Amino acid sequence: MSQQISRNIQSAIYALQEGRFVLVHDSSKRENEVDLVVASQFITPNHIVEMRKQAGGLICTCIENEVAKNIGLQYMHDTLFLSNSFDRDLKNMIYGVTPYGDHPTFSMWINHKSARTGITDLDRAQTVRSVSSICDMAPEYQKEIFIASFKTPGHVPLLVAKEGLLENRQGHTELSIFLAKLAGLVPCTAICEMIDSENHAAMSVEKAQKYSTNNNMPFLDLNEILDWT
Question: What is the pLDDT of residue 2?
């Protein structure tokens, strides 16, 4: 393991612990996208503003697989597949995999019960922080508080990390939860894909690296994180 990798990882840990963003690129063999990542326990409306204005993708909240099991959440593709409302053709579509070979980690979409519309910066920040609080609770209380705290459908999609994290899936959901745990934080993150407004595609790694340098945000690649593990 190189010393440079150690410094990059340590910089990311410090940034997350301070409530700052980290940029994470998965792989050219997967989505080949760069996400803004922040620890959900620190999120404010200003974080939401930066994600929607500077990143532009979908603002999601990631949780550990164990927490999802405690609450009773399923992956969305499993929920839809098990529904009696869809015929075989639709179920084949529902259970299809992504172009890079795995299933998305989407589960339920939620709003905090205090939200009026759920989409404002204030509402989404409240929802994300409240998810983090539940992730930090004793397991026996998580389901009861979750049910009492949120309404669905809402404007914040929950992403459930695969059990075993990077051993079983190497998407931004697992990468961000891995980094939060490495930083000693609540394993709950908010992530958002960076979109290039000039060509309307995913922002290139080169542009994202320039953004990270200009804004003093650590930039990590999947391979750097795997080397650390």
Answer: 43
Residues involved in catalysis: 35, 60, 100, 111, 155, 193
Give the strand pairing for 34-39 and 22-25: antiparallel
**Which tens digit of pLDDT belongs to each residue from 121-152?**
999 999 999 999 999 999 999 999 999 999 99
Please state, in angstroms and rounded to a whole number, the distance separating the CA atoms of residues 20 and 1: 26
Nearest partner of 58 among 158, 163, 132, 151, judged by Cα: 158
| Per-residue confidence (pLDDT) for residue 95, from 0 to 100 | 83
Domains of the chain as residue ranges with CATH: 3-228 (3.90.870.10)
| For residues 88-105, average pLDDT | 87
